[in-house]
Specification:
With 768 residues, the chain is of the alpha/beta class. The protein has 5 domains: 84 residues, Arc Repressor Mutant, subunit A (Orthogonal Bundle), CATH 1.10.10; 105 residues, GIY-YIG endonuclease; 184 residues, Rossmann fold; 182 residues, 3-Layer(aba) Sandwich (Rossmann fold), CATH 3.40.50.300; 92 residues, Alpha-Beta Plaits (2-Layer Sandwich). 31% of the residues lie in helices and 22% in strands. The chain has a 7-stranded parallel sheet with strand order 11-12-10-13-14-9-15, sandwiched between helices. Strands 16-26-25-17-24-23 form a 6-stranded parallel sheet, with helices on both faces. It has a 5-stranded antiparallel sheet with strand order 2-1-4-3-5. The longest helix has 18 residues. It starts with 32 loop residues before the first strand and ends in a 6-residue tail after the last strand. Bound molecules: adenosine-5'-diphosphate and zinc ion. This is Replication restart protein PriA. It holds the Pfam family Helicase_C.
């Protein structure tokens, strides 16, 4: 135990610098070359000479510092391969230094990141840089301290030297140990300062090495509880089937299609128990908002070592987990999207819960989808993947239909609990709703009934703020953000009109900024307005609003859910934050305030999202003895998404929606590459987009026997964002590889289009 490690130490390498010797240049016959990639948007890699002093330690996956670009500035890069064959190149620069003692990524991770860069059309270096957490790169929570030991042959040298008493004490202390000793420990044991140590080193009696140690230990232990649930028949056959696959060493993907509350998590846990029994590790991906204490507890109870990777971890905690995982000390890794990159050395299984969640797709470079990365990772490792959902994406469902992947069904809720009845409320004939209220007659009746029977209520409205538009009756305009093509949302509590795209805000105007006439209307409802209405309608009943405005503080989310669980709060209302994963037996009513918000999005997945939303919120009720029901307010009661959701009929919805997508040539029958261009001068952006299109056309759109279709250039639905004008092209073709070729064909013109910036998004899920 190194007690002094927490205090500032004198023994950092900087405090006691060594004179550096330049690397020797060796015979060119025997050279080693490293291929290096950078965190820059260029697809090329570069070769560097490996100096002899680094040869023993450099590995593919090592971070290096090399001279690069104009001015040959020292730049960080990643060594991705080593070769003795001289690459076709003339002047080789040398690697300046190695940044890590051991490589941060192994061979499998190198293959995976390379695949991502090819699939998602960005550079290998960008991917590597993004999958390694910042805390791991900075070695957060550790520091490098000098350790000392006696030099080889020191005894001979001692015979010709006369040591001071202090120096002698140092030598004696070092003689008593075989390991290098930390500087602090040594000086305290030998009761000496820095300078006698320095002298001994100069005389070649003592040598120093840099050793990295943890500043403080970061770890967590499991709770362990093996109270077993008896699996029902469907759960049992699902578990058995995946375990068979585990044993086969094949890489099979399973869609665990189970209604909400059917016991999917229990299936994951049973399979993971089997994986752990063989000394292997499992990764479980869940949406960030499902990383509640409730979920975490379920895993901690059943496994001895669980790492939970959520966004609130400090860099030091993340680094510590990474190291523990890499050493194989963690059995189960539970985390959001990026946990798919956990460096488990002997991975046995990947699970993705709520496979349909959009948060598994990253919306900045590299724009990967964790589910697709998982499919690739398990293929490479020869292990199974479980995708769980009550409302699978049509992409995954189609693979099931085509028998490319295996569907395992859990059609019933556990303990014979029925799915709750879903009532559709047509808002078009409700007078009270016409006047700007959010709660229609039927909703009010159901709420009163539920409260009278001591039940709890969840109300869902996916718009935050008080009202999403400030509308001028005189000129027919809404108040807009000066930098974005969106209306400002009125936030009553904060007394601002806020842009939800760029956070621009102003004092709420009292008159129209366009025409100057007074009297702006608050158009539409947000959660804040709903909260006012509920409180006015149900005085004395405790109401809690959950959205990103009220849940800013760390831990507030957990506290809010806890007070709801305890029954201190009777009505919980909020945005999608409350639509997912919550399991409260006393909830007897779920109200969807406005199903039309998601139905009217300019996105071919609007129907699918609406279906998912209703099915998911319906999953929040009827989980206990009291039963429950769902009310859905909509002005489009005949929409298939709403009708099928009310009947809990996913399969029928999927059949009809797939037919529709097939007719229109949408995914999952084709894949889409979305190219987004942005710049400050609209004409330039449009011209750049036009050039990309022409470039593709001139290279030929007929590929693989099919014609690639190009939509656009056209302004994006949000045509202006943070002062930038935005244009898009949407290219579709059944093959992702063809889409990749098309982009690579035109990509070389990108530098000529600067300052217009281009980003490419394969399989986009946002079309803003
Ligand atoms: P899902 O993930 O499909 O929504 P969960 O796995 O969360 O469902 O299960 C819902 C609840 O049912 C949990 O409290 C779980 O402990 C319980 N449960 C799971 N399987 C069984 C079973 N076979 N018998 C009784 N209860 C079960
Ligand atoms: Zn804005």
């Amino acid at each position: 135990m190194q007690s002094s490690a927490q205090q500032p130490s004198l023994f950092t390498p900087e405090d006691l610098p060594e004179v550096s010797t330049p690397w020797e240049i060796v015979d060119s016959e025997d050279q080693l070359y490293a291929e290096v990639v950078f965190n820059l948007p260029m697809l090329k890699s570069y070769h560097y000479l490996v100096p002899s002093g680094l040869r023993d330690n450099i590995r593919p996956g090592s971070r290096v510092r090399v001279p690069f670009g104009t001015g040959q500035k020292l730049t960080q890069g990643y060594c991705v391969s080593l070769t003795r064959t001289r690459p076709a190149h003339r002047n080789f620069k040398s690697i300046e230094s190695l940044l890590d003692v051991a490589p941060l990524v192994d061979a499998a991770m190198l293959r995976l990141t390379r695949w991502i860069s090819e699939e998602y059309l960005c550079s290998w270096g960008q991917v590597l840089d993004s999958v390694i957490p910042a805390g791991v790169k900075s070695k957060a929570g550790t520091r490098e301290l000098l350790h000392f030991e006696l030099a080889e042959g020191y005894e001979t040298r001692l015979t010709t030297l006369k040591l001071s008493a202090t120096q002698q004490r140092i030598v004696d202390v070092l003689r008593s140990t075989t390991e290098p000793m930390a500087g602090d420990e040594l000086t305290s044991l030998a009761e000496c300062g820095l300078s006698p140590l320095q002298t001994l080193r100069n005389k070649g009696i003592v040598v120093s090495t840099k050793i990295r140690t943890w500043s403080k230990s970061v770890s967590s232990a499991g709770e362990n509880d093996t109270s077993a649930i008896l699996l029902n028949r469907n759960q049992h056959s699902a578990v058995t089937r995946v375990i068979e696959s585990l044993a086969s060493g094949k890489s099979e993907t399973f869609l665990l299609y189970g209604v909400t509350g059917s016991g999917k998590t229990e299936v994951y846990i049973r399979v993971i128990e089997e994986v752990v029994r063989y000394g292997r590790q499992a990764i479980v991906l869940v949406p960030e908002i499902s990383l509640t204490p409730q979920t975490i507890r379920r895993f901690r109870k059943r496994f001895a070592s669980v790492a939970v990777l959520h966004s609130h971890l400090s860099d030091a905690e993340r680094h510590s987990y990474w190291q523990q995982i890499a050493r194989g000390q963690v059995q189960v890794i539970v985390g959001a999207r990026s946990a798919i990159f956990a460096p488990a050395p002997n991975l046995g299984l990947v699970v993705i819960d709520e496979e349909h969640e959009t948060s598994f797709k990253q919306d900045s470079t590299p724009r990967y989808h964790a589910r697709e990365v998982a499919r690739q990772r398990v293929r490479d490792a020869g292990i199974p993947l479980i995708l769980g959902s009550a409302t699978p994406t049509l992409e995954t469902w189609l693979r099931g239909i085509r028998k490319e992947e295996i569907v395992l069904s859990l059609p019933y809720r556990v303990a014979q609990r029925p799915l709750p009845p879903v009532m559709i409320v047509d808002t078009r004939n409700d007078q009270s709703l016409q006047k700007g209220a959010s709660l229609g007659r039927a909703m009010l009746v159901a709420m009163r009934e539920s409260l009278a029977k001591k039940g709890q209520i969840i109300l869902f409205l996916n718009v935050r703020g008080y009202s999403p538009a400030l509308f001028c009756r005189a000129c027919g305009q809404s108040v807009r953000c000066p930098d974005c093509d969106v209306t400002l949302t009125y936030h009553k509590q904060r007394q601002i009109a806020l842009c939800h795209s760029c956070e621009y805000s102003i004092d709420p105007p009292t008159s129209c900024p366009n025409c100057g006439k007074p009297g702006l209307l608050f158009l539409g409802q947000g959660t804040e307005r709903l909260e006012h209405e509920v409180k006015a309608r149900f005085p004395g009943v405790s109401v809690l609003r959950m959205d990103s405005d009220t849940m800013q503080q760390k831990g507030s989310h957990d506290r809010a859910l806890e007070s709801f669980r305890q029954g201190e709060v009777r009505i919980l209302l909020g945005t999608q934050m409350i639509a997912k994963g919550l399991d409260f037996p006393n909830v007897t009513l779920v109200g969807v305030i406005d199903a039309d918000t998601s139905l009217h999005q300019p996105d071919f997945r609007a129907s699918e999202r609406t279906f998912q939303l209703i099915a998911q919120v319906a999953g929040r009720t009827g989980r206990g003895e009291l039963g429950g029901k769902v009310l859905v307010q909509t002005a489009c009661p005949d929409q298939p998404a709403i009708l099928y959701a009310a009947r809990h009929d996913y399969a029928a919805f999927a059949r009809q929606e797939l037919e529709h997508r097939h007719t229109l040539g949408y995914p999952p029958f084709v894949r889409i590459l979305r190219i987004i261009l942005r710049g400050e001068i609209e004409a330039d952006v449009e011209k750049a987009a036009e050039r990309i299109r022409l470039g593709m056309e001139s290279k030929g759109l007929e590929r693989g026997g099919m014609l690639a279709k190009i939509l656009g250039p056209a302004p994006c639905p949000v045509a202006r964002l943070k002062k930038y004008f935005r244009y898009q092209l949407q290219i579709s073709h059944p093959s992702g590889e063809v889409l990749g070729q098309l982009w690579r064909d035109v990509e070389p013109v990108a530098p000529e289009l600067v300052p217009v910036e281009i980003s490419v998004d394969l399989d986009p899920i946002s079309f803003r």
